[in-house]
Write a structure and sequence with these properties.
Number of helices: 5
Low-confidence stretches: none
Number of domains: 1
Structural class: alpha/beta
CATH class: Alpha Beta
Shape: globular
Number of strands: 14
Mean pLDDT: 96
Order of helices and strands: EEEHEHEHEEEEEEEHEEH
Length: 209
């Protein structure tokens, strides 16, 4: 069985998802928003073998815990190479949105591309490239569950007015990459609550214009 634990962390309450293969106890963390000790200890206390950190994109509110988690768990972090610019923007974006500072931004050296797969136990997590919110936006799908980052929200989509955002590209990504998935695909979003593909195809007024 694949279980999902949700942690809402960081200065703007981003969702972080710990996916666990309950048989092998291998796990992956999708997004890493905070170095908060409570967050780190909660993952430790889950009794898992954390194999990877997978980032949906490089915005500050999804990467602030990467250095701490790499240090504690000895894992590698994967992100689209197209979002390296976002890592450089992170300090000024963090200051702009929260008034906080960051000591050191992550040095991402492992990159993920469309179709790459990451295995935990008997489950394969597949990467889906969805540019628009950022150039390197990436979603991950496994076991009928889509982890959409800030590409698709419940009744909304990711903002495109930040550097390297592009609404037309975002709409194309959603329509051509996500809305072709089965309607009952669960969507675990980067902020806010869960939804599913069928609901968003029918009711998401922002993308259905």
């Amino acid at each position: 069985m694949l279980s999902v634990k949700t942690f809402v962390e960081g200065p703007v309450d981003a969702n972080n998802y710990l996916l666990i293969d309950e048989e092998s106890k291998e796990a992956v963390l999708i997004d890493c928003s905070s170095p908060n000790s409570e967050f780190v200890n909660a993952v430790k206390d889950s009794g898992v073998n954390l194999k990877y950190i997978l980032l949906t994109h490089g915005h500050f509110d999804h990467i602030l815990g990467v250095n701490r988690f790499e240090e504690v768990f000895g894992v590698k972090t994967y992100m689209s190479e197209n979002d390296l610019t976002q890592i450089k923007y992170a300090p000024q974006m963090l200051m702009m949105f929260s008034g906080q500072t960051i000591d050191k931004t992550p040095e991402i050296q492992n990159f993920v591309k469309e179709g790459n797969e990451f295995k935990i136990g008997n489950y394969k997590i597949k990467a889906i490239s969805t540019p628009g919110h950022t150039k390197g936006g990436m979603c991950y799908i496994v076991d009928g569950k889509l982890f959409s980052g800030d590409t698709l929200f419940q009744g909304s989509v990711g903002r495109c007015d930040l550097p390297e955002g592009d609404f037309e590209e975002l709409a194309k990504s959603i329509n051509e990459k996500l809305f072709v998935l089965p309607d009952d695909t669960e969507v675990y979003t980067g902020h806010g609550g869960k939804t599913n593909i069928g609901f968003e195809k029918k009711y998401n007024e922002i993308i259905n214009i």
